[in-house]
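Lab notebook, design round three. We kept the backbone fixed and only want residue identities now. Task for the bench partner: fill in a sequence for the structure below.
Input structure tokens:
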């Protein structure tokens, strides 16, 4: 068993460096978004864009109704209206892009139940979730690959990562938020959030 005080000491050596990397990374994201959004400084609608805007629901998101949560990174849901990504009205499995939570089955891994409970709290049965794809729409298990937002605008993939429920997982070509997720995971690790403060690795 890994001694928790030794683990905390080890991470403590890197906490400041990780925090600085996070700050610089988010500043870079903010600068990039600001350059894209500041074409006309006389127009109030093109005011400087903050790093937070990357968390906002994109225009190509569509509404789905949650049937139930399968585990910490997968739900069953149905599209409210057929579209080019989902043409059926039947419930389908939706896998959150860019994150990977501990496995719930066949045997629960450390923090799998907590991650599943968090996702269930964000997306209770019958709630509306907004989904947006990346470049590749389905995986080899025929699950729809999506970024998800709550009706109130919370970016679910990010929320799970920030809480320490998930690791970042990049499967090309779906990498739209890869840098954000990597930085968010580093911050969660540095602060012993979620699984990082409770599980042995």
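Proposed sequence:
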């Amino acid at each position: 068993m890994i001694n928790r005080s030794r683990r905390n000491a080890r991470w403590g050596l890197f906490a400041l460096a990780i925090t600085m990397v996070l700050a610089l990374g988010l500043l870079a994201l903010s600068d990039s978004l600001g350059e894209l959004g500041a074409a006309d400084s006389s127009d109030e609608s093109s005011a400087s864009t903050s790093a937070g805007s990357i968390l906002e629901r994109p225009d190509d998101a569509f509404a789905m109704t949650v049937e139930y949560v399968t585990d910490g990174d997968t739900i069953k849901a149905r599209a409210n209206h057929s579209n080019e990504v989902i043409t059926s009205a039947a419930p389908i499995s939706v896998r959150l892009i860019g994150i990977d939570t501990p496995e719930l089955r066949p045997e629960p891994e450390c923090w799998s139940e907590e991650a599943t409970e968090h996702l269930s709290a964000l997306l209770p049965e019958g709630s509306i979730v907004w989904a947006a794809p990346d470049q590749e729409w389905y995986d080899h298990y025929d699950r729809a690959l999506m970024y998800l937002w709550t009706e109130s605008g919370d970016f679910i993939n990010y929320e799970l990562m920030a809480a320490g429920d998930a690791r970042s997982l990049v499967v090309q070509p779906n990498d739209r938020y890869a840098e954000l997720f990597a930085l968010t995971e580093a911050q969660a690790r540095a602060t012993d959030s979620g699984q990082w403060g409770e599980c042995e690795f």
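Keep this in mind before ordering anything: The two ends are 10 Å apart (CA to CA).
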